[in-house]
Amino acid sequence: MSADLSRTQRNLLVCERSSFLDEKNRVSSQVERLRFNYKVSVLLPECGSASSHLESILNSFSSFYLIKQLPLYELLDKDFLQSAVYQGSVYGLSFRTRIDEDNCVALMPNGHLVFSLDKDAFETLGLEGRPSRSNRTSSRYEVTVDLRDGTMAPGGRGYLRLLQGLTSRLKLQMDFLISHHPGGRASLQPLLSRCDWSEHKPEVCQHALSHLVHPTLRSCEPHDLLEWIGAVHGAVSRENSSSDFLSTLTCLEPEATISRVTSVSACGLLLPQDLQHLVEELRCHLQQAQTNSWASVTVHGFTDSPVSWGDGERDVLTGGHDLYNLLMFPDHTYRLHLAAGAQNTCPP
Amino acid sequence: MVPPSGPVQCQVLEILIRSSDVLVAWSYMLLRPDLLLGLEGVTPVCRVSSLQKMRAGAEEAESSGYQRVVLKNASPHHYLRVRLVLEDESTRVSAVDLKTFITSCLRSLFGEVGAALNVDVLKYDEETLTALLRVPSRYRSEAGSARRSWSWFGFSFLSSGFCFRGLVKLWSSLTLQGFYQNRACAFRVLQVSPFLLALTGNSRDLQLD
Lengths: 348, 209
Description:
Chain B: One of its GO terms (biological process) is tRNA 5'-leader removal. The complex is a heterodimer. By secondary structure, chain A is an alpha+beta fold.
């Protein structure tokens, strides 16, 4: 029993410090690596009129589309492949499917169609795949098909085999979230015209926080920093003492108190390109702010996405949670923290 | 293994500590005993690289170099979002009642040692009976300081008794608790993460109807 209790969920925290002026800073590449983003939360102290500008930026995020009960073979339609998969970047993800219980599908911007299937579905589909690396006892299998590969061109051998699998052997049908950059609805029209779809914009909400006590943001420990930001976003009280019965959470080494902080968040299928634009706008705002100002951006990935950072497999049963936090300062420096499951591959 | 001394220019220094690597562990323990003692199963990986400072003019900020550190299983706490489902939905449960109930769950499964686990109720919604809990990822066993001893090259080392059991004990005790005040109940564990920040967003709550 003692050996089993010592095994808990494994996790990685990648901590980066650098400057945006440094040629080798990896902020842009890291933002691109998390393909399916669910929520972005921004903390901006003493921003004044910039809060309305910030809200307008979030309202300008790309729309996404919900297709109800999409038969997956529709993703192999020639017109859709030509307009959306072969050109630009398409982001598609099964909706209301749980990665540990149901069959999940993701359509990546690089044209990869990723299936996370249970054993029966995998054997029925009849395609080449491999067991899940994250949990070999759960009988999950991953199948990856490169729709941009020559064999997957319409009429090709691989294409016909996949089409036959999805139309006759395993007729997968599920709700699907989809978006496209830069084409948007026009690129997705061949698919949307044949399905029951609805357009959605990311839901934006804003509220103000007053008298926020914060630690030394530049030098505090990574886990303490993430705990503090999580407490702010989660409205968790930090005014406790070590002898309190309910909670002993306190703000470690408080540095200063800010009279007003704006918190803005957006939820939906968020594209990395929109998040890049948000980061750039916040950097511009910080250039005009005081020297002791800062901005925090937190991005959460989809819990049930079959892919994690980059093209990595989702690590669910051993701590599968993908998020990153970018803390920026007026002098172009930043602290970037990325959370991922501890897999055998390189961390993001 | 050579610790960095003086300014490091264009160097990549990688320190890999594995509990099974006796020679590396022994030599590293002389420098960082706090990282090594009692941390079985932890594999901290540090990779530090720094570039020569760039000065691009008086108006531009100085580049402070690029640093990257990868921490594995280093979170001091784990966080859970749980919901208490009661057979009698009209029953009122306060935050203090919930904390007392959680302590009793730990006591019933793991005894007084388990009940001593420091569980914080960070946030509680009395309407939905949903709570945000924090538990230490590792804690010192109250059975004594010498949980385990190792013998390498004739030397004995006593571990401090740290182990990653807090989350497992709490989660298991909540899962196996079936009654609250003699009425059927169940804890639904909605989210678990070593980062409190991760619990502020759950894509499963996305409603698009």
